[in-house]
Amino acid sequence: MDQKKKAGLGIASLILGIIGTAFAFIPIINNAAFVLGIIGLILGIIGLIKKNKKGITIVGLILCILAMVITLALQASYKKTLDTAQNKLSDASGKNTEEILGKDVTVDLGAFTVSEEQYGMTKTSLPVTVTNLTNESKSFSIQLEADASDGSRIKDDYVYANDLGAGQKQEFDAFAYISSDQLEAVKAATFKIVTVSMQ
Predict the structure, then answer these.
(1) Do the beta carbons of residue 45 and residue 61 sit within 8 Å?
(2) Can you give the residue range of the structural domain that contains 65?
């Protein structure tokens, strides 16, 4: 009877190791696999101390350790993937503006100009130069703002630099359509970059 109890520890360790290893590959459920691995490892160690059947017990120990290692490795991999996806989402949503500016792209704002065209039409322009600092083709979306001296927003505009090659620069004209009732305020405005997103 005592011999059966000793053998039971090794068999329990083996069964927990098999179940733990099988569950280790399944996200979320692999948390249970890790727990099963720990329990199986403890039972296996006790079985070895009590001179249990060595072959079964050692295989059980190896499987329990394997279940825990696979669980930790896959969870680290999932975390890395989620972090990468979150960073890409932040880059695409403009949340990482300060990080993107200067590291991945430069956005240079020129002087705002107003000129009279034919038939009394007024042409306005804020030159914007976008330079891709990365080693691959990227698309950038830049939100600009014209602010009054008190800090209030008068108008905003967007610049889209699509598929800008590595090291490539492109020039744009922002604030090209200003209504006559906003023109004087925009002439005296301070222009600034609000957000930059990258894809």
Answers:
(1) yes
(2) 2-93
